[in-house]
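Q: Predict the assembly, please.
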Amino acid sequence: MVTRAQPRRSAAAALARHASDPAALLLLVLLPLVVQSGFVLRVLSLSWLDAILAMGVVVSYGYAGIPNMSQGTLYGVGAYAVANLMSNSGFSFLLSAVIGAVIAAAIGGLLGATALRVRGNYWWLVTIAFTQVMFIVFNSWTAVTGGEGGFIGIPLARIGGMTLQSFRSFYYLGLAALAIVYVVYRRVCRSRVGSAMIAVRSDETAARGLGISPGAIKIASMVLAGFGAGIAGACLDSITGYIDAQTFSLTFSFNMMLFAIVGGIASLRGAIIASVALTYVTTEVTSLVNYQFFIFGGTVLVALLVRLYLGGRSPVTELRRRWRRARGAGDATVEEPAVEVVAE
Amino acid sequence: MSEPDGRLVCTDVKLRFGGIVALDGVHMTVEPREVVGIIGPNGSGKTSLINVLSGYYRPTSGSVVFDGRRIDRHRPQELRRRGIARVFQNLRLYNGLTVLENMELGLVQDMSSALGVVRATCGSIVGRRQTKLRGTARERASALLSENGFGALAAIRVGSLSYGQRKELELLRAIIEPPRLLLLDEPTSGVAHSDADVIKERLLAWQAQFGFAVVIVEHRLGWLFDVAHRVVALSSGTLLAEGSPEEVAADPVVRSAYVGS
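A: Predicted assembly structure:
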């Protein structure tokens, strides 16, 4: 076995490895200084919320293997809970957001518990059925959701004595929520819980033999998905001031699944990029709204074909691999192994 | 409940699937540090017995007691926590993960319950620094890999290894958190003779080092007789013979069950 000499780690590589997330966040924080359009900022602030939801799909489906077609519904649960707490109970935005996230997480956990009783494709049906039933509930339970007329007059969010009412503040609210949820999901996915999720998704029987409870892991993944959706729902209330059941339809959940798939199903960053890009393009170019599904479907097809062409690797992984290979080829002392080996 | 003694005691274990009798009143005892081989023709109930011992099947009747506690109603993940590890006949490694990551999965038994998962999840969110595992456990996994010739392979995906290496790695994963009882279902199936010898040497070394008991189902009788202290022969779900490898090998009833004459 040929062991490759450890390549010299350049400062740029180290920066890319450790500072890419903070750097991206910094750029996004500075973006409103350049982009002044209220419409663009509003679209972006809503796309941050879509990104949160798509990341929830990554955790529950990409990691734990639970097809989650209820992300929009959990979003709605959080949004309606927060709207009621702020409007009727006079709770502050932050407290409402926390409670809303807990409620959505609990509903997600209950939904996850049903995963223990069904398997494989039936789980798609369970979540689709749940979403449809909840859509009817959202539309009919007038006292809580406002019924078909929607929930009107949600108070503006106040954080630290500051009222959020500008497009820029909405942008930052959504971005802050995205950053928080991203950090939480990333930590979980990179921990042994993330490894246990992969184990359960890949081979449940073996996972049990290793001492992992598949049921608890599945429920945990749905709780996490619900938690993010609840936070996104709270932000939606603040940004739009009005919510109705149409927002939380099956179509919306389907879109979140598409975003996650286009982003590479087990990639949090991919889900963010795909959500923002697709939401932005189809909303910004208003003439494309009618072709939304054509664009989404086409993107999924292209993403799958690219993966197929690359032998299952993501384009990012492939580019990184080729870049490393090119660097290795430039150094005559480095012999490229058939299988990449990194010395421990 | 009897005293904790590290023994495994099966009493009159029966297992039925509808009208099919897989195990029909099996009595068996495994002492601490003992290596017991289970042999028998195809369909004799060997794997069913392993499945009962590891919690994948619940016996229809009878009892299984390990270390003074009944375990026949426990789930596999709970039994792994109690010190019973199992290796399957077919490879059950995660091909998409690296060698080290697969090893680390042998160390996550604190997630065998809902409370354990909640604790681990909260810990991963609020923990100061989240690597795959805490330092010592990762070091232990790396050390064990190095000791067994996998050190240079730690970062490559398991799918790239040879079949024999994967078999060996799966064994290694089962003992990374040293069990008290190791259940092996055909550990040498599909591997070359040379690899089978390597597995034998490693198994005996680990058994001597960690002192666990082993129950092995194996068709390669010569290999098994070299390893086992005692052999149990099954046929049609019942115990046919029991004794030292030499005694069982010479038993005319066992010979007849194998060759049908």
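Residues 35-249 of chain A form one domain. The beta strands of chain A are 158-159, 162-163.
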